[in-house]
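Researcher: We plan to redesign the surface later, but first we want a full-length starting point. Tokens attached.
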């Protein structure tokens, strides 16, 4: 489903005398359909950078990231956007949406952009919002007016509304209470059961142990 091969990445800080910061060197692994792989390693070892390369936010210096026949490293912006619409879902740590868009629409939007029916998208969005305990009284308000915890839950359900074949999760349960954490774990398990390849960063060991089939220590691919 997803294959990373000989991935290299470094940053050049042009405002600091073109300082060269190695990030990853020789990263190589596969993630199968229905498998959850946890990225581990100390803070700063490149976990989030690796995830952003898989999503196409960062471009690798060399190597390949193959998803559904497309190499993200060499893909055009149009090809990356096509992957994001229907193949790769990404739950980042922060909700980034346009202001004044109602929560129900924010959550339903990825399903619609992937070609889904609008009414069906909103029905799925309603079910997920209820599962993550976002009350119906808030659905016509912008999520940018919500508390941090509520925004996080909206961000999570937005990532699960479309059945992406590949799902990237960056600390999806951080700061959630036990009930909502368990609901997110259920969503991850269900994604695996339908065949999604899941890659996650889980600092909570209990969460990691509950959903991850194996771990990849990203520090082993340190660029230093």
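Model: Full-length starting sequence:
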């Amino acid at each position: 489903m997803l294959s990373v091969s000989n991935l290299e990445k470094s940053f050049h800080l042009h405002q600091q005398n073109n300082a060269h910061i190695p990030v990853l060197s020789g990263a190589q692994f596969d993630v199968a359909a229905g498998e959850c792989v946890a990225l581990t390693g100390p803070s700063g070892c490149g976990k989030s950078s690796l995830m952003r390369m898989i999503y196409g936010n960062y471009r690798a210096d060399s190597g390949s990231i193959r998803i559904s026949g497309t190499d993200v490293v060499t893909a055009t912006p149009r090809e990356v956007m096509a992957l994001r619409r229907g193949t790769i879902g990404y739950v980042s740590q922060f909700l980034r949406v346009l202001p004044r868009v109602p929560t129900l629409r924010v959550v339903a939007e990825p399903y619609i952009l992937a070609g889904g029916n609008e009414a069906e998208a909103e029905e799925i969005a309603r079910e997920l919002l209820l599962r993550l305990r976002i009350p119906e009284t808030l659905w016509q308000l912008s999520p940018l007016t919500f508390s941090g915890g509520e925004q996080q839950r909206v961000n999570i359900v937005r990532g699960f509304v479309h059945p992406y074949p590949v799902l990237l999760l960056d600390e999806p349960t951080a700061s959630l209470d036990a009930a909502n954490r368990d609901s997110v774990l259920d969503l991850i398990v269900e994604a695996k059961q339908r065949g999604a390849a899941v890659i996650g960063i889980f600092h909570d060991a209990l969460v990691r142990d509950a959903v991850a089939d194996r771990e990849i220590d990203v520090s082993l691919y340190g660029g230093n």
